[in-house]
From TrEMBL:
One Pfam family per UniProt: KOW
Protein name per UniProt: Transcription termination/antitermination protein NusG
Keywords in alphabetical order: Transcription, Transcription antitermination, Transcription regulation, Transcription termination
Coiled-coil intervals, chain numbering: none
Top-rank taxon, per record: Bacteria
UniProt source species: Fructobacillus broussonetiae
Amino acid sequence: MSDSIEKAWFVVHTYSGYEHKVQTNLESRTQTMGMTNQIFRVLVPEQEVSTVEDGEVKTSIENDFPGYVLVEMATPQDGNMTDEAWYVVRNTPGVTGFLGSHGAGSKPNSLLPEEVDLLMKRMGMTGEKVVDLDVEVGQTIKIVAGPFNGMEGVIRAIDPEKQEVEATVEVFGRETPTELGFNDIDTNI
């Protein structure tokens, strides 16, 4: 298949708690069954969450949609996946079905592009435009998103490639380091 093949994201239902096992199994089956030209990416919809406990910032990974896995597949047939790709995914251990399928072997509906964009943004995988931010180390910034929303911080490091800054925020009288995306800060304070 050529690079111009249409791709779409589908939601696969799994047993809750088995999302990563299904991801691993499906990636392995895709390789061994020669389906790399029809099944491209398998993702568990998770995001990194920071909380402040006892004056310390703790980061954890939370599953946004327990029991679901996202699969990017080729859609050469009127926006539907091929029968072979459907079979490989549907018969992967731990998979109970597709979201948007009406059973009896019917093909599921793919996610809409705006749904995919929202999910990718929540997972920190957006193809967002590169932000050209004019800041320097030691500059005070205002945080406009996340757990430190509304607080001020001081920039300690800048990573233009990742579009992030490392800043310190005063929490309960202690300086707490945090990483912030360029879109999460305001330099006009």
